[in-house]
Amino acid sequence: MKALVETSNQEVDSSTSVKGDAGESEAVLQELQRILASRYFRSAGRSRQFLQYVVQQKLEGHLELLKERTIGTEVFRRSPDYATGDDPVVRVQAGEVRRRLEQYYQEAPSDSPVSIKLPVGSYSPTFHWASDKGSTSPDPLPVTPAVAAPVTAPVPQTRIRTRQWAIAVACFLVIASVAGIVLFTLQRPTHKKTILEEFWSPVFATQQPVLICLAKPVVYRPSLGLYERYTRTHPGTFKTEVERYNHPLPLDPADKLAWGDMIINTEYGVAIGDAYAGVSLSGLLGQIGKPSQVRIGSNYSFEDLRNSPAVVVGAFNNRWTMDLTKNLHFGFAEKDGTFFIQEQTPGGRAWALNPGDSGDDYSDFAIVGRILDSRTGQFIVIVAGVGGTGTQAAAEFVSHREYLEKALRDAPPDWQKKNLEIVVETNVTDSVAGPPHVVTAYYW
Questions:
Q1: Cα–Cα distance measured from residue 112 to residue 105, given in angstroms and rounded to the nearest whole number
Q2: 204 and 337, same structural domain?
Q3: Could you report the per-residue pLDDT of 66-122, keeping only the tens digit for each?
Q4: What is the rounded distance in angstroms from the CA atom of residue 265 to the CA atom of residue 60?
Q5: Phi, psi of 84, deg, nearest 5
Q6: CA separation for the pair 95, 188 (Å, rounded)
Q7: How many other C-beta atoms lie within 10 A of the C-beta of residue 313?
Q8: What does DSSP say about strands 432-433 and 11-13: parallel, antiparallel, or unpaired?
């Protein structure tokens, strides 16, 4: 590998990467995998993403990509024009990575051929080789061919003493600089996770994307034959598929239909509340730097839920919600055509839409579940309302820091390690869900 000489203040890179030496690049990648598998990085999703990105770009020589804005865009899904001054996600995560690397190397195996460091004030990692432990240079210097040494006159003692003095001064400056960096690192305030980050932190325990699972109930539509019969008595109507999709068929309520007049529509069916929830959740996961995939209807199975963390959206129209909540403290129930949330204990409470509501002003209810040890073996979040507005409010609840902070203010101190269910209520006006608020909660 060509020379790479770095100090605490500047970097001089004569080759821009270690790509030219496959052996050394492979050694760095192996060390990276050991670091990521350690207890300091194993469940720290953001730190893993950050370190993987900067090491890979350094190895490939893409030093121009190791800038705050670029890292924010590529790793943490920020928009290209985001304000780095207002959003310190890259700076905060760089500090977290430095702290974790320091902890890791305090107990790293002594036979590791290379160590990876992230200098303070830089996003470009350095690679320190075991053979250079006695040197202040992080990467090996080039070896020049041996040549016969010319015969020279003896060096005067004054020159030798001057050289020794210069070396001593240089060593002192290096030690002072390193001591200053260590002191700054120790005194630097650590980033305290927000309630929102703590709520969602289990999704980073795996590199698999989060599945946002939406339901797709059975939906029927008039058959082409029924449209044609109507057209014969009302010429010029419903001649195109665009008209059929965008205008209701105004049949007389007394008209009789055969079962063959209705067909199953396989392309439509996601409820409005579920769709709004899916958009909110996808946006949230993008903000916290966790990839996600939207799955609809039969496009996901129990096997998928076993392989990835998931957010299950919707209640009575989603069989997986009904299955996952059937043995929890709060579950969903139906009686005499009424849907409600039931506290599944003797004499338990219930929350339902008021019978006879016109649909303009009423209260809707939802369950927010955070299940660490679901029977899928993966982290599961449940976002499900009695009605569509309840589901929408539940998604808003888990996507906003202020709602979670207020809800978890009286939670047990170790709630992060517990399963939880929260019943939330939203006041609906003109079919629009209002802000969610907590009715009750249960932890176990």
A1: 10
A2: yes
A3: 999 999 999 988 888 888 877 888 988 898 899 889 888 887 666 778 999 999 989
A4: 50
A5: -65, -30
A6: 9
A7: 34
A8: unpaired
In residues, how long is the chain?
444
What's phi and psi for 265, nearest 5 deg?
-100, 110
Cα angle, residue 90 at apex, residues 205 and 371 outer, rounded to 5°: 25
262's enclosing H/E stretch is strand 262-264
Contact 303, 312 (CB under 8 A): no
Q: What are phi and psi of 280, to 5 degrees?
A: -60, -45
Q: Tell me: the pLDDT tens digits for 133-179?
A: 444 445 443 333 434 344 444 445 545 455 555 555 555 555 655 55
Whole-angstrom distance, CA of residue 216 vs CA of residue 320: 12
Is there a single domain that holds both residue 102 and residue 243?
no
Token pair of 309 as six digits: 């963390």
Claim to verify: residue 237 and residue 282 sit in the same structural domain? no
d(CA 425, CA 389): 10
Q: Are 369 and 421 in contact (CB under 8 A)?
A: yes
The pair of structure tokens assigned to 68 is 């705050």
Per the structure block, which two tokens stand in for 285?
């996961």
User: Given CA atoms 134, 135, 136, 137 in this order, what sign does their dihedral have?
Assistant: negative
Domain encompassing residue 240: 220-264
70: closest CA among 85, 56, 80, 61?
A: 80
Phi, psi of 380, deg, nearest 5: -130, 135
User: Count of domains in the chain?
Assistant: 3
Supply 237's token pair. 């109507």
User: Could you tell me if 206 and 306 are in contact, meaning their C-beta atoms sit under 8 angstroms apart?
Assistant: no
Q: Which two tokens stand for residue 153?
A: 């006159």
**pTM, to two decimals:** 0.56
List residues bridging with 263 in a β-sheet.
221
Residue 156 forms part of a structural domain: no
Find the farthest-apart pair of alpha carbons in the chain and give their distance in angstroms, rounded.
119
- The whole-angstrom separation of Cα 217 and Cα 384 is 15
Q: Residues 348, 254: one domain?
A: no
String of DSSP letters for 298-356: GG--HHHHHHS-EEEE-STT-HHHHHHHTTSSEEEEEETTEEEEEE-STT--EEEPPTT
Distance between CA atoms of residues 107 and 89, nearest Å: 28
